[in-house]
Design a protein that fits this description.
- It contains 8 helices and 14 strands.
- By secondary structure, the protein is α/β, with parallel strands linked by helices.
- The protein folds into 2 domains: 4-176, HUPs (Rossmann fold, 3-Layer(aba) Sandwich), CATH 3.40.50; 201-316, TPP-binding domain (Rossmann fold), CATH 3.40.50.
- The termini are far apart.
């Protein structure tokens, strides 16, 4: 039976190095000369496709058109498109170059298709036995998959030796970024703004808001959310962008809403003191290491402006 090994290069950084490693790994993985390789790319340019076409049998280039509210792909976007495409491919293996996003995507695909997964592969003794690292590279051991279909995530160096005689068949799939799994079920708006004392939902602005137009956007968003109010952290009061009565923290107000949404707030101790009694905390920050994430029920790593546009778009399109 012909193997169909799927290679996925989903990040632009070091894409040529990733492709070389994956092609070399594929040669070790192949059981027969009839084995085929399918390369899946995201928004690849023509020059890279030409290079890649000399290394694999088939290329699927997923072309994603950005929207007005979101321009960059998330792991969830990639998962959505990959699951749809992989359903139509009779694959034997899926291979990624190791990265945080590869671990996210590969782990999901393993669960979705109910197949095995082996990560941190640094070498292959043969096509069924692989060496991998563990405990921060302090331990190296050999593993063999128990399933016939597997996700492989490689961290070692593998070099391709066999060149393809024919250039790959190239297929383009066109998509538009979607609001995956999110829709507005019911739309309502408030007639008057709630006070910070009785608001069920508080939208709180942080240092990421640098001017009046940005502040107006969070007030506009609040108008479409019943029982909501707008708060802020101290830097916005110090800069004159918001009045002191909206400041949450040790030197401001203490609040206890059902939902506290922190937009661009880093999570200083003085601010956390003022909102620690919130029942549910959602934080949006482009800094993955923001301290406030340690105290949040939902952590969203995104640009504040992009997230607010997407949020507003979901509400408006109901």
């Amino acid at each position: 039976m012909t193997q169909n090994i799927v290679l996925i290069v989903h990040e632009n950084e070091k894409k040529e190095e990733s492709l070389e490693k994956l092609c070399g790994f594929t040669e070790l993985l192949a059981e027969t000369k009839n084995s085929k390789s399918t390369l899946i790319l995201f928004n690849a340019d023509e020059s890279f496709i030409i290079k890649a076409s000399q290394k694999v049998d088939k290329i699927i280039n997923i072309k994603i058109d950005p929207t007005e509210f979101r321009s960059e792909l998330t792991s969830l976007d990639r998962i959505n498109y990959l699951t749809e495409i992989l359903k139509d491919i009779n694959f034997s293996s899926i291979a990624f170059d190791q990265s945080i996003k590869s671990l996210e995507i590969g782990g999901f695909l393993s669960g979705y298709f109910k197949i095995g997964i082996i990560t941190d592969i640094i070498a292959a003794k043969n096509n069924t036995t692989f060496s991998r690292e563990a405990f921060q590279s302090k331990l190296i051991f050999d593993v063999s998959p128990e399933t016939s279909q597997n996700v492989f995530i490689i961290s070692g160096q593998f070099k391709q030796g066999i060149k393809k005689e024919k250039k790959a068949v190239v297929i383009e799939k066109n998509y538009t970024i979607q609001n995956l799994g999110v829709k507005c079920i019911k739309k309502d708006s408030r007639k008057t703004e709630s006070s910070l004392d009785d608001a069920k939902i508080i939208l709180s602005a942080g240092r990421a808001f640098t001017d009046k137009p940005a502040i107006e956007k969070i007030f506009s968003l609040s108008k479409d959310i019943p029982d909501s109010a707008v708060a802020c952290s101290r830097p916005l009061v110090d800069s004159g962008l918001m009045e002191y009565s909206r400041q949450v923290g040790i030197t401001g107000r203490s609040v206890s809403p059902q939902v506290y949404i922190a937009f661009g707030i880093s999570g200083s101790t003085q601010h956390l003191y003022g909102m620690k009694n919130s029942e549910f905390i959602i934080s949006v920050n482009k800094d993955v290491n923001a301290a406030i994430f340690n105290y949040s029920d939902i952590c969203i790593v995104d640009d504040i402006e992009d997230f607010m546009k997407a949020f507003q778009s979901i509400i408006n399109n109901n």
